[in-house]
Amino acid sequence: MTYTLDKLKKKLALPESLQIKFPPAEIEADLAIPCFREDPKKIARKIKGLKLPLIEEIKIEGRYVNLILNKNLLAKQVLSDIEKSGDKYGWAKDGKKILIEYSSPNIAKPMHIGHLRNNVIGHSLEKIYEARGNKVTSINHIGDWGTQFGKLILAWQKWGPKPITTENLYKLYVRINKQTAKNKKLEQEARDTFTKLEKGDKKLLKIWERFKNHSIKEFKKTYKEFDINFDLWLGESFYQEAAEKIIKEALKKGVASKEEDGVIVVDLEKHKLPSYILQKADGSTLYAGRDLAAAKWRLQKYKPTKILYVVGHEQELYFKQIFKTLELLGYDSSKLEHVNYNLITIGGKRASTRAGRTVFLDEVIKEALRHTKNNKIIGLGAVVYNTLSQKRNRAIDFDWKKILNLEGNSAPYIQYGYVRAQSILKKAGKKKVDGKIVIETEREVRLIKLMAHYPEIIKQAQLLNEPHLIASYLNDLTQEFNRFYNSDPVLAANDSSKVKTRLLIVSGVAKIIKNGLVLLGIKTPKKM
Ligand code: ARG
Questions:
Q1: What value does the mean pLDDT take over residues 199-206?
Q2: Radius of gyration of the chain (CA)
Q3: 142 lines ligand 1 (CB under 6 A)
Q4: Nearest atom of ligand 1 to the alpha carbon of 142
Q5: For residue 247, what pLDDT band results from cuts at 50, 70 and 90?
Q6: Which atom of ligand 1 is nearest to 311's Cα?
Q7: Which domain holds residue 230?
Q8: Which of 290, 406, 423, 511 has its CA at a distance of 20 to 30 angstroms from the CA of residue 269?
């Protein structure tokens, strides 16, 4: 039996309304049941009546029923569970269909540190949902449509053509944005170019396609470094026609209306959200229209239980508007969830590609490799871990020292724990050790308890869409493992039961670290 709180709750036959928790470290108990509406005495009596060998002591403290478990039994259960499930310890069989959209960069612009945060969160969620037994489809909703491409094509025609490189495209992009900001006529020209593109102008489409192919080729190189693979690559352009259709649908259903000047607007005032423009007067579609169409398409084609949108928090209000509009159109928007995350700032300031103040993702990769003498597993592991070690809602200030940190609370620190565990196991070889599982020391107890928590950690990480929980768990586990390793001899222990128990602990920790890092999108090295 995997030790999750749900299963324990069933075993203890607790009423639905009661929760069971792992208490904080300062509480001397293994499990806590807060009883705010029930009588704790009654609950305690009921549990006592079950006479479960695993429950050693029941204590009532205020409104809490605290349980102390039999450590040897707990250890036996957890260790045998890990041995049985191996690399899949803590996994579940949820069996739901989930779509996860993430990354979604705009073509003709290199990915930057903001995308780093997006990519690693999305990738990790993909793994976490899979570990929970879901069928996950990952989607890259490439930004390949919109006025900005009118701008870029125009710039290319004016100041190009040069060989298509990411650098050239980026320079053109920065240059045209500077110019259009102060030149209304040029701005209009760019809009007209996009309208022409949307109407299917062959020449413009050809240029656009070249930009797009180049960018996608470059993106793929970057994703490969992180082992990221998308099941679907569908750019916004894919939804152009569907966007036109859903705009008509919105007009017909009275969700949108056409203003005198020809602009189509969705009025959300009644729903306490700002109104927004769905289509411009010149008939060109907008980001929002394409998102409505994409959501409808995804819901109808995949019939998923959930669609996650991993997108930065600056689009929070925007997604509220989109989800509300879909609801008004009669689609099940309760399935859609915006998984947002805070900024990565530079020197406390918001990074901006347009202003040229940013760090590109490829620079980060290059620097990480240089810093670790080309060791991808360690270098990129450090970058990924550092990004995931913060909660999503916390801003991260970009700091080369921090992102390349190889010491405590870092991927290399955890990877090193794994390598140490492996070397003990290797030394033990195939030596058969007999004996019972016996838990004696404080450090063993703490490790066993942590190991027992792992399935619940994965579950919570999924529930809250928070890979950070796994990152900080692995750090705690490694720390505790190092303490254990430094004080409790494994192979030199003085009786065979101890050797056996400790070897099982070491092997369990190694399996959890390896598997936990996989869920973060990080690999484990063979040696360090
Ligand atoms: N390409 C957009 C950007 O870079 C992000 C797309 C987010 N996803 C979506 N379905 N709107 O800002």
A1: 95
A2: 27
A3: no
A4: 1
A5: very high
A6: 7
A7: 146-234
A8: 290
Distance CA 511, CA 443 (A): 19
Average pLDDT over residues 177-199: 93
For ligand 1, whether the C-beta of 309 sits within 6 Å is yes
**Three-state SS at 19:** coil
Going from the Cα of 142 to the center of ligand 1, the distance in angstroms, rounded, reads 7
Q: Is 104 in the pocket of ligand 1 (CB under 6 A)?
A: yes
Confirm whether 337 is domain-assigned. no
State the CATH number of the domain containing residue 30: 3.30.1360.70
* 424 and 501 in a common domain: yes
Q: Do both 166 and 227 map to the same domain?
A: yes
d(CA 70, CA 465): 33
Please state which of the ranges 12-16, 125-129, 336-340, 424-428 shows the lowest mean pLDDT.
12-16
For all residues of the chain together, what is the average pLDDT? 93
Q: Is residue 262 left, alpha or beta, with left meaning phi > 0 and alpha meaning psi from -120 to 50?
A: left
> Which residue owns the Cα nearest ligand 1 atom 1?
143
Burial of 97 (0-12, 13-18, 19+ CB in 10 A): middle
Shortest-distance atom of ligand 1 to CA 319: 11
Q: What CA–CA distance (Å, rounded) separates 368 from 412?
A: 12
Q: Tell me, what DSSP letter sits at residue 408?
A: S
Distance of CA 265 from the midpoint of ligand 1 (Å): 21
283/260 Cα distance (integer angstroms): 14
How confident is the model over 258-279, as pLDDT tens digits? Answer: 999 999 999 999 999 999 999 9
152/173 Cα distance (integer angstroms)? 6
Asked if residue 456 is part of any domain, the answer here is yes
pLDDT number for residue 432: 72
d(C-alpha 293, C-alpha 144), whole Å: 15
Q: How far is the CA of 314 from the centre of ligand 1 (A)?
A: 11
Burial of 42 (0-12, 13-18, 19+ CB in 10 A): exposed
pLDDT at residue number 78: 95
Task: Count structural domains, the chain.
Answer: 4
Mean pLDDT score, 309-317: 97
Contact 340, 379 (CB under 8 A): no
Sheet holding 306-310, edge to edge: 232-233, 135-140, 97-101, 306-310, 336-339
pLDDT > 90: percent of the chain: 81
Domain-located, residue 333: no
What pLDDT, on the 0 to 100 scale, is given for residue 346?
Answer: 85
C-alpha angle with apex 121: 215 to 211, nearest 5 degrees?
5
Joined together, the tokens standing for residue 210 give: 């070249």
Q: How far is CA 365 from the centre of its chain?
A: 19
Buried b (16+ CB within 10 A) or exposed e, 469-499: bbbbbbbbbbbbbbebbeebebeebeeebbb
